[in-house]
Amino acid sequence: MMHTLERGEMERILPLVPRARDAGHMAFVHAVIEGRQPGHAFVDDTHAPRSALVFNHAGFAFALGRSRPDLVVPIFMALIDDPSIENQPTALWCTAPSWADALRPYFHEERSRDEFHFDAARAPIAVELAPGYRLQSMDEVLASRWGEGLDAWVVRIWGGPKQFAERAFGIAVLQGDDLVADCTVCAIGGPRPEREAEIEIGTAPAHRRKGLALGAAVAFFEQCRSRGLTPAWTCDSLNTASRRLAEQLGFT
To answer: What mean pLDDT comes out for the span 59-79?
Structure first.
C-alpha cells in the first residue's frame, strides 16, 4: 500500500532521488518536492520510504528507490484517470534500470530519452539572429499568447501564464509581435550547486532552419547563470534534430 506525503514531508524522499549526473529529468522531481510545481508524492513508508512515486500535474510520474511495481502501477493507473491531466501526454519514468526491468511487463509501449550534461566551455557565447527577429524575456503577456507550432505545455505545467511569469523564466524570439521560437524552463530544482533548469525549446515550423532556437538558448544560458542554475537537456532517443542542437549548444 502506498501513502501520500504532505507538502512538508516530501523531503523524506530526497535520499531516493538520483543525482543529476546519474539520471535526467530530476529537476521535475525536485520541482514537486520543493513546491515549485503542483504534484503528489506517494511512498511505501511515510517515515522511512524505500519506494516512491512522484507525480506532477502535467502527467509525468517518476518511480524512485526500490523497484516495487506492485505498489506503483495501481496508483499510477488511478492517477492518469484524474480529470486534471485529461488530454495531456503521460509517462512513467524509470530512474534506474531495475525499474525498467520490473515495469516492462505492465506496459505495451516503451520509450527512452537521452540525457545530456552541459559543458559551459563548449557552449557558444553569442549568436546573431537573422534579420527581422528579436529576443525578449518571457513575461505573462507573451506566455498568454503562445504561438502556433510551439508547445503550450511549458506554460500549462507551471499553472498558466501568470504562474509561469512568477515562477519561471525564458527567452522568446519575436518577428514583429509574433512569438515564433522560444527557450524556456519547464522545471527547476535540485540541491545546490547542482540545481537544474530543464529546457523546453522550440521553433514554429515556418521559421525553422534559421538558427532562432540557437540564439534563444544562448540568451537563456545567461538567465541560468544569473540565477545559479545549470541548464539541463533530455530528448527522445530518436529525435536526431534535438540531439544535434544539444551538441551545438555545448551539451554532451
So the answer is: 92
